[in-house]
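Dear support,

I submitted the protein below through the web form. The confirmation email said the job was done, but the results page showed an empty box. After a refresh the structure appeared. I'm attaching both so you can tell me whether what I see now is the final result or a partial one.
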Amino acid sequence: MHNKLFATLLGTFFLLWGAGALAGTPVPAVTALETAAYNGDAQALIRLLVLGQNHNAQADTALGTLYYLGAGPAHRNYAAAFKWFHRAAQLNDPRGAFCVAVLYGNGQGIKQNMAEAAKWFARAAGRGDAQPDFYLGLLYENGQGVPRDYAMAARWYQKAATEAHNAGFSPRFIYDATEGVPFDNAQVMWFHISKPIGEAGAEEGRAGAEYNLGLMYLTGKGVARNRVGAYQWFSLAAAGGNHLAADNMKILARQMSTREIVQAQAQARLVTAKVPRS
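What the results page shows now:
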């Protein structure tokens, strides 16, 4: 009870401190209100609704997440979640665009449409988070919503694996990625919005991209076949917790010379030096 009251009061303080345009409400205010609403504070949810109606993208995304999860006083409502995520996306918020893509991909709150999912992942991609980049690569690799294009898939996996990432992609929630295993046409529920902030959702997206890059270098899809490159990306994915990558490394190592393995390890260190793991 005291925690909820404190978070609501903190949010109100920041609202008063930033009392100009509601659209420009300071980020700490929205984060505090979202935390309070998540913990069951109905007044905090009402304040978020006011902010959301006044073109505050972070509040829109917070509301979408609360309704998606059915958290606190917000009953689970995928249509409402889609509405708020879409409002944020229209304000050029990459988190909102990502979540719109998720709901289109899952058919939650809106009819499933993989072409729309690809469009919105593309709007969120290339803006400092591994997961939209990874998912866009996955769509290109599998020809879901876009023409199958292994070179484009490799390009987006590379971006997810090598660009600096924004660990705070969402103010309260981050997003699960798959293990990097391509899905089939029958699989629908492959996008998720579920993990509390602080868990390594961005790292999972990065590791999935690294794993899939390893497969592409191993098979020559979208890139020239290269065992050194495959081992490099598998080793990076394994460092990110991908167990399939660790197994593939062991198998591949039996086919490689010591010199090739040393070269792959050196290349992996260069990537880690450029973009350290969180």
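Response: this is the final, complete result; the empty box was a page-load delay. The beta strands are 173-176, 192-196.
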